[in-house]
From TrEMBL:
The keyword Disulfide bond applies. Belongs to the glycosyl hydrolase 18 family. It catalyses: Random endo-hydrolysis of N-acetyl-beta-D-glucosaminide (1->4)-beta-linkages in chitin and chitodextrins. The keyword Hydrolase applies. GO terms for molecular function: endochitinase activity. This is chitinase. This protein functions as a defense against chitin containing fungal pathogens. It is an enzyme of class 3 (hydrolase). It comes from the Eukaryota. One of its GO terms (biological process) is chitin catabolic process.
Length: 305
């Protein structure tokens, strides 16, 4: 995953996501913005993303090699090199974010990588790795790429490979909630319903936040002035999935995805007023911090989210 520049091309199988979420860092109300950070070294630090006050949820992207016996690998583009240990200082940023009330998830998967789960036992092994390397676990034998700070949860952006055993993975992860930390489970399915890679995991009903990628998928996204397919798909997701909150995932700039960008004024005047009536509405998810920096999108929409 040397370059992320082609992660958002027009093939719906190859995308990544982003997300957003809701809550209350910024708006006093119902929704909030979740954002993906990690795939461009020129997007500022994690602490800076949190210090904007605009993002109650930040997904750190990506752990893009795991499962089936592979040695797990994380990619944070130009930020630092997880394998060499140069990302352990992110623990300072992680604590700074959490002190502001921002929830941080490790996003696993993505549009470029090598990952799959080969069995229920493998799902258990990967869940233990995630617990010990990124969450509240402490194991002398497991290296922690982001240092000793514990993230709040795990985000699934499964876009490649088999769909199998992710339901087991999220059940194992959720079972660690009893060990002194709530483990948030979030996910970024693509909008065609049901999601072909994550459908069975979502059916467990244990996701806290689901930020659906309403982009790179013309049948269920906004297209040229027409909100029909987007709203129809939103309604299907919000009435079909047993998650605590659902977010509308969008590109933060026209160049951030192959298709599906919604001008800020269209989102705030035509779409937010409709989707906010859903009891499951959590807010907006954006891909990505880098693109948001270029466009200023989050600043344009945050008061309406
Ligand atoms: C279990 O996970 C570790 C990563 O923590 C990996 O290196 C190892 O190969 C896995 N074991 C099996 C049997 O898959
Ligand atoms: C919007 O898209 C829907 C679904 O493709 C279509 O049926 C409808 O006619 C379109 N509306 C307009 C105004 O173009």
């Amino acid at each position: 995953m040397a370059s992320k520049s082609h992660q958002f091309n027009s093939n719906p199988l190859i995308f990544l996501l982003l997300g957003l979420s809701a809550i209350g860092v910024s708006a006093a109300g119902n929704g909030g913005i979740a954002i993906y950070w990690g795939q461009n070294g020129n997007e500022g630090t994690l602490a800076e993303a949190c210090a904007t006050g605009k993002f109650p949820y930040v997904n750190i992207a990506f752990l893009n090699v795991f499962g089936s016996g592979a040695t797990p690998q994380m990619n944070l583009a130009g930020h630092c090199n997880p394998a060499s240990g140069s990302c352990v200082s992110l623990s300072t940023d992680i604590r700074s974010c959490q002190n502001r009330g921002v929830k941080l998830m490790l996003s696993i998967g993505g549009g470029i990588g090598t990952y799959s789960l080969s069995s229920k036992l493998d799902a258990r092994n990967v869940s233990l790795y995630l617990w010990n390397a990124f969450l509240g676990g402490k194991s002398a034998s497991v290296f922690r790429p982001l240092g000793d700070a514990a993230l709040n949860g795990i985000d699934l952006d499964i876009e490649l490979g088999s769909s199998q055993f992710y339901d087991d993975l999220v059940r194992y992860l959720k079972s660690y909630c009893g060990r002194g930390q709530k483990v948030y489970i979030t996910g970024a399915p693509q909008c065609p319903f049901p999601d072909r890679q994550m459908g069975s995991a979502l059916n467990t009903g244990i996701f806290d936040y689901v930020w659906v990628q309403f982009y790179n998928n013309p049948p269920c996204q906004y297209t040229s002035g027409n909100t029909t397919n987007l709203i129809r798909s939103w309604n299907q997701w919000t009435t079909s999935i047993r998650a605590k909150k659902i977010f509308m995932g969008l590109p933060a700039a026209t160049q951030a995805a192959g298709s599906g960008f919604i001008p800020a004024e269209v989102l705030t005047s035509e779409i937010l007023p409709v989707i906010k009536s859903s009891p499951k509405y959590g807010g907006i998810m954006l891909w990505s911090k880098f693109w948001d920096d270029q466009s200023g999108y989050s600043s344009s929409i945050v008061s309406g989210v």
